[in-house]
Design goal:
With 279 residues, the protein is mainly α. The protein has one domain: Up-down Bundle (Growth Hormone, Chain: A), CATH 1.20.1250. The longest helix is centred in the C-terminal third of the chain and has 32 residues. The radius of gyration is 20 Å and the shape is globular.
Length: 279
């Protein structure tokens, strides 16, 4: 689903503003979590008894099945007007730094959470697939409980601008805490805290991104392309740096970088971010 269709979807169904958007996102995260709450521990059992090959085969089948619902989404008729040169000009344009820098940081922080943190957990738990799966399952379960208990409060009391600033600070602090993790209990406690803060941060951040996308009018495809280039470049470059530097310093240094990247998300603003079609 495109940015513009998501924006229309939530706008049409959630008239009470950001709080209702947060509630919808909470329902989305909770539903996803309930479906995947036992996935980590089941994956650990499969790896122990059948190996990675069977696990990968199951994942491939699930991925193929998950694509079936997308066939029901009506096609969008938008013409992409930028050339390759124009796209990269917009990427490096000074006027777009308020968009590019936060999105780059978003990609950088995301890849550290996706690739580095699981490896760190694996090392702490001495390579036990079952323990990694069990701890991850407990984290997901506890996170869902906290989500359901706070969603209504956020729906009633918060405003988008305040949430993104506060949540990014608290979320950044979660990365700092991860530097000092040494036991399974630490992994659980910090993991739950960080997951909850991520929900707050992602909801407010994604809402703002959707608003910026909607403001682009007919240039929604151009905006989406620019966004994806930036986020994935942040992921690739950060992962490359982490791999190189990890040969010389402990891997936990990456968590400090992720903490800083989380704070950079505050730079995102809908003001003055209007893409132009002229070369």
């Amino acid at each position: 689903m495109s940015f513009i269709s998501k924006k229309k979807y939530f706008t049409n169904r959630l008239p009470n503003g950001f709080g209702s958007f947060y509630l919808a996102k909470t329902i989305h995260f909770t539903a996803s979590g309930l479906l995947g709450i036992f996935t980590p521990i089941v994956a650990g059992v499969i790896i122990i008894h059948f190996g990675f090959s069977i696990l990968f085969l199951i994942v491939i089948i699930l991925l193929l099945l998950s694509g079936i619902p997308f066939r029901t989404i009506p096609p969008a008729h938008e013409k992409y007007t930028w050339s390759y040169k124009k796209t990269w000009q917009q990427f490096f344009a000074k006027k777009n730094r308020g968009l590019i820098v936060p999105l780059f940081a978003d990609g950088a922080e995301n890849i550290i959470g996706l690739a580095v943190w699981p490896i760190f957990i694996f090392e702490i738990l001495n390579g036990s697939y079952l323990e990694v799966g069990a701890v991850s399952t407990f984290i997901i379960g506890a996170t869902i409980i906290v989500q359901l208990s706070t969603g209504k409060y956020i729906d009633q009391k918060t405003q988008k601008g305040g949430v993104i600033k506060l949540s990014s600070i608290f979320y950044s602090f979660g990365w700092v805490l991860k530097i000092f993790v040494v036991t399974a209990f630490h992994i659980f406690a910090v993991g739950v805290y960080h997951s909850v803060m991520r929900i707050f941060m992602r909801t407010s951040f994604d809402t703002l991104v959707y608003e910026i996308a909607a403001d682009q009018g007919h240039y929604i495809d151009e905006f989406t392309t620019l966004r994806e280039i930036t986020i994935n470049m942040g992921k690739v470059l950060t992962l490359g740096v982490v791999i190189l530097v990890s040969f010389y310093v402990p891997i936990v240094w990456a968590f400090a970088f992720a903490a800083a990247a989380s704070l950079v998300l505050n730079m995102l603003s809908s003001k003055h971010i209007v893409l132009e079609s002229k070369s």
